[in-house]
Amino acid sequence: MYRPPIRLSSPSVRYLAMGLDMLIICISGFVACLWYLPSRESHNIPAGYKMLVLAAAFLFLVSSPSLYRSWRVNELGTMMRSVALAWAATIMILLIGLFVTKASSDFSRVWFVGWCVGTLGLLMLQRLVVYAGLRWLRDKGYNYRSVLMVGDGPSVEHVQEALDQAAWSGLRLLGKVMPGELAAYIKKQDELKIQIDEVWLCLRRSDDVGIRLVLDALRHSTANIRLVPDWFTLKLLNHGVSEVVGIQMLDLSASPITGEVRLIKAVQDLVLASFILLLISPLLVAIALAVKLTSRGPVLYQQKRHGWNGEEIWVYKFRSMVVHQEAGSQVTQASKNDSRITPLGAFLRRTSLDELPQFINVLQGRMSIVGPRPHAMAHNEHYKKLVRGYVLRHKVKPGITGWAQVNGFRGETDTLDKMAKRVEYDLYYIENLSLWLDLRIIVATVFKGFVHKNAY
User: Fold this and answer.
1) Is residue 244 a part of any domain in this protein?
2) Which pLDDT value is given to residue 358?
């Protein structure tokens, strides 16, 4: 028996979910106050606690767009992981803020831990309940959408595989037809009173005739018609749909640093760089003195690199080599047993301590804490002709550490394959950029990214 699908994809559902998360964070915080604080008997919750809870709710809501994507495109494990990472990052930002403002002593540690653990548990429980409810509805024949594929383009196999692996999405494949067969197929489905919710066009990019046939056959249909582009044969970056001067445009290559992502990234860099510089300032002074006393020349080495959108920037490092001049614009990569590297410089490079002054670059807005490492300009000119997608690294600010570095691709790139692999990881970071990926990279850098066998 046919059952009409229940529509749960309205934008209002997203706002309802955000409101529910905010309510959970606030209620959990206030209940923890009444339970743990000495003033709980009078129900007098200090204003500072209220502000901290509200700040956490705001940070959590704006943290990641994936938190509130449709349940049809997010499997349960992915959502749970996103919630855990989002809440962990929110708590980390709060702790950094409390440390910098010296306000941590104003809050009960027992309350803080109880609130953090309780909130995470409730946020996950809420999603488990909703997920179970949706599965129950789908078992009863509700809350699913029927999909009809049209065409035999290169994307068909990929789409079929994705639907087979995503039974949790509530999307059901009705079948696959060619453009010329669509009109007859729709007529037959109408006679059987079977509704088609989605029509996905898996056609080749050059098949204008096929697209016109489909649109003509569906001219009386209320189904959502979607074109599945052949992304799989192209190297695209941050692809999506944008509206510019009222015109819908398909992004084939665009920077992800826009809107709220740009704001969150800037705040993250400003807060973390300030905190880290304050923390390591004695170490910076000690290294500066050591460099000055062990070799002739300036303490800092400045080199021009390409920054965001290819803009030329000055990047700072502690000088690790003897002062020398290379011919023309040539830049020779440091190699193992390089005679130009001083004994102290070898230690600084091996431990990445020579890169600490780049936190000043972050405060200047030239760099980010996390991003593709900036290469010498001469190397950019050389490799952009050899490695596909190389210049796309400049769609974001260069970073002190990056996805490639924590995955082992740092130091000398003496072969083309090594550079291609580094670029592959850099582009993965840009395509998947988020606050949580940044924090994951920072944590990985702390534990394994400073010392590496290829750093010399």
Assistant:
1) no
2) 94
Domain assignment present for residue 252? The answer is: no
Name residue, tokens 């905010």: 22
Q: Report, as an integer, the average pLDDT of 231-237.
A: 62
* Residue 195: domain span: 145-234
Which residues make Cβ contacts (< 8 Å) with residue 13, sequence separation at least 6? Answer: none
Enumerate residues 6+ apart whose C-beta is below 8 A from 347. Answer: 353
Rg of the Cα trace of the chain? 27
Is residue 326 included in any domain, yes or no?
yes
More confident residue, 199 or 332: 199
What does the pLDDT read at residue 5? Answer: 43
Under a CB-based contact definition with an 8 Å cutoff, are residues 318 and 285 in contact? no
User: Within this chain, do residues 408 and 349 fall inside the same structural domain, yes or no?
Assistant: yes
| Domain co-membership, 349 together with 271 | yes
Pick from 288, 285, 318: nearest CA to 301: 318
Q: Give the global pTM.
A: 0.59
Cα–Cα distance between 83 and 284 in angstroms, integer?
37
Q: Report phi then psi at 274, rounded to 5.
A: -60, -45
Report d(CA 455, CA 331) in Å as an integer.
17
| Contact indicator for 153, 203 with CB cutoff of 8 Å | yes
CA dihedral 73, 79, 83, 85 (to 10 degrees): -100
Q: What residue spans of 104-143 are helical by DSSP H?
A: 109-139
Among the candidates 97, 117, 139, a domain finishes at 139
